[in-house]
Amino acid sequence: MRIVLDANVLVAGVRSRTGASNPLLIAGFKGRFAWGCSVPLFYEYEDVLNRAEFLLATGIPRSEIATFLTDVAGTVEPVELRFSWRPQLRDAGDEMVLETAINARADVLVTQDMKDFGAAPGRFGIDCLTPADALRRIA
User: Which domain holds residue 14?
Assistant: First the structure.
């Protein structure tokens, strides 16, 4: 199964071990699904995990975030953005996640903010799931 993870899933997974995002990330690192990621989406991962408010809230040093991102880079399958499908969503910031999923021919797009994506992923044959629903699907 090919999955694209929104940056908010990484944030939730790094912040807490009690929610579904953390075991979903672990499953990705273990190769239980093909984790697709484009260069712009990886930069988004890097940006949100290095924001001062995130680092202060979690107490995680930048060096550990850098190590985590290196592990992510070694795990993901690169997705080349050959086609632009914009605009599809109300929030332009979410367009790169959907665009990555479309170009990756993903089965699933995983996000904490389902309402932001609406019916758009379904128009491309992509299921939009919460981390908990995605975790159940790969189980």
Answer: 2-138
